[in-house]
Structures are given as structure tokens and as C-alpha cells.
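Weekly sync, protein design subgroup
Attendees: M.S., D.O., the rotation student, P.L. (late)

Item 1: inverse folding check
M.S. brought a backbone from last month's batch and wanted to see whether the design step gives back something sensible before we order anything. D.O. pointed out we never logged the input encoding, so this time it goes straight into the notes. C-alpha cells as presented (216 positions):
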């Protein structure tokens, strides 16, 4: 296998790993869908890019075996998970209480804060330290990152992880945006309520899981 073929193979493997990490529709997916419907494709896609960026950072920690960071996350895993659960619950309540009609009117008068959309999902995805161990398992299975390879070769695999995640969020938000024009205001109201309830429930389950691990 020549150098170009090897790099292309690593890039594709990284993209597959990025897709595998992004496709499961947890609270992040629901948030991206809700923002796409209420605020537009760019808002939803940039929110997804926040998740892809956080996943890539976790993949870098896993791939380069930054043991001191992994130890830090392991030691504080419970509190990080608890904070993440609380944030998800609060976000669910906020979405549930939001009136999509007034939100649409505000978005017409001023541009959505796209940086806030990106950063909020980046931080929310970053509150799940277990993702590091998920990437460790995926890298070990796929044989993507090796300490025998140069750092630049490993960076190609990490670029693939980001591109795979970005591709998924582009497909998802583009699909949702395509059907967005068919939604009526009453349907938007219900979508907000259902999205908020789902996100709140997922956050509540995360908190209960932490309580169960600590006390039982």
C-alpha cells in the first residue's frame, strides 16, 4: 500500500468512526433538529458542527493516549455527567417553554447567534467524558491511530472523524430543512413541546443514572 492509498484509507476509516459517533440521535440530535426547524438550516448545522468538534477532541485524547486527561475525566466522571444531565434538563425546559411563533418573528428581525449555537452544543457534547473510551474502543477495532505513525498521519484520521461527523449533521439538517417548509405554526408548537419533553427526559435519566451509581 503506497502512501497516498494509506492516507486515503485512514481518512475514510476516520469518517466512518465520525459517522458512527454522530448518528445515534440522543439529546444533541434532537437539539439540532429543533434548531433547524425553528431557526434554520445554518443554525442546526453549526450546532451539529459543535458536536463534531467535541467528538474530534475526544478522539484526539483517545488516539494520542493523553493519559493525564483521561485520568482527569475518570476521576471527575460522575460530577461531569451530573452537570451535563442538569444542563440537558434545563435546556429541555427552555425549549418546552419557548413559543416558536415569537422565536420565528425574532429571527426575522435579527440574525441568530450562530456562535452561541455552536458553542452550546460543543460544551454539551463535551460534558460526556465516556465518549473518550468509546473512541478508544473504535480506534482499537479499526486500527486507525498508531504510535508508530507520525503525528501528521494520525491527524489525517482525526480529520476524517470530524468530516464524518460534519457529513452526518449536514445530511440530517438538510433533510429536516427540506421538510421544514411544510410545517404549520401549530405543528411547530407541538414539535417544540415534544422536543423539550424528550430532551428533559433524557437529561433526567442521565441524572438518575448518576444517582444510582453513587448511592446504589
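Designed sequence read out in the meeting:
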Amino acid at each position: 500500500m503506497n502512501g497516498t492509498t494509506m492516507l486515503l484509507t485512514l481518512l475514510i476509516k476516520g469518517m466512518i468512526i465520525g459517522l458512527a459517533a454522530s448518528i445515534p440521535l440522543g439529546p444533541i440530535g434532537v437539539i439540532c433538529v429543533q434548531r433547524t426547524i425553528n431557526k434554520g438550516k445554518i443554525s442546526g448545522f453549526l450546532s451539529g458542527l459543535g458536536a463534531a468538534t467535541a467528538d474530534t477532541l475526544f478522539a484526539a485524547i483517545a488516539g494520542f493516549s493523553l493519559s493525564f486527561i483521561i485520568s482527569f475525566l475518570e476521576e471527575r466522571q460522575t460530577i461531569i455527567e451530573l452537570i451535563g444531565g442538569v444542563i440537558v434538563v434545563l435546556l429541555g425546559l427552555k425549549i418546552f417553554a419557548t413559543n416558536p411563533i415569537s422565536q420565528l418573528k425574532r429571527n426575522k428581525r435579527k440574525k441568530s447567534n450562530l456562535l452561541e449555537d455552536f458553542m452550546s452544543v460543543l460544551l454539551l457534547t463535551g460534558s460526556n467524558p465516556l465518549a473518550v473510551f468509546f473512541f478508544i474502543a473504535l480506534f482499537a477495532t479499526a486500527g486507525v491511530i498508531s504510535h508508530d505513525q507520525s503525528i501528521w498521519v494520525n491527524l489525517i484520521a482525526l480529520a476524517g472523524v470530524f468530516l464524518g461527523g460534519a457529513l452526518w449533521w449536514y445530511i440530517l439538517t438538510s433533510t429536516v430543512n427540506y421538510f421544514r417548509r411544510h410545517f404549520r405554526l401549530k405543528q411547530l408548537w407541538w414539535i417544540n413541546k415534544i422536543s423539550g419533553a424528550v430532551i428533559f427526559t433524557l437529561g433526567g435519566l442521565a441524572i438518575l443514572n448518576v444517582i444510582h451509581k453513587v448511592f446504589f
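Discussion: The chain has ten helices and no strands. The chain has one domain: 3-215.
Action: P.L. to compare against the previous round before Friday.
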